[in-house]
Amino acid sequence: LLLSGCASQPPAMQAFSAPADGSSMQYACGNGEKVEMQFYPEQGRSVMRRSGWTVELPKQPADSGYAYSNGPTTIRGKGDDLTVEIGRMVPLQCTAQ
């Protein structure tokens, strides 16, 4: 009975929310690139590192999963999958390592 009060949200919901505050996740993308994401959901932002550059992305509303965008760069994630959209480039499909 005491243990049931410890869970902050049901396990099914945890899989589709942004990772924990300050956590770093590595992703392998379909084009062979690696992307590192650092999430700060309590601050409403994330930081993406890709190909030698770093960009900060504010949190955006998402129908499911999570989304962060600064306008030209957007990431959308759900479970282990991450999509990186940069301008008019073909979106990168990435999976957590």
Structure report:
This protein has 97 residues and is mainly beta. The protein is 4% helix and 51% strand. The protein has one helix and eight strands; from the N terminus they run H-E-E-E-E-E-E-E-E. Strands 1-2-3-4-5-6-7-8 form an eight-stranded antiparallel β-barrel. It is globular. The N terminus is likely disordered.
Compute the CA-based radius of gyration: 14 Å
Number of strands: 8
Largest sheet: 8 strands, antiparallel, barrel
Report strand order across the widest sheet.
1-2-3-4-5-6-7-8
Mean pLDDT: 84
Quick recap of the structure?
This protein is mainly beta. The chain has one helix spanning 11-14; strands at 23-29, 34-40, 45-50, 53-60, 66-69, 73-78, 81-86, 92-96. The chain is globular.
Core attributes:
97 residues; mainly beta; 8-stranded antiparallel barrel; disordered N terminus
Write the layout of secondary structure elements.
Elements: H1 11-14, E1 23-29, E2 34-40, E3 45-50, E4 53-60, E5 66-69, E6 73-78, E7 81-86, E8 92-96
Antiparallel strand pairs: 1-2, 1-8, 2-3, 3-4, 4-5, 5-6, 6-7, 7-8
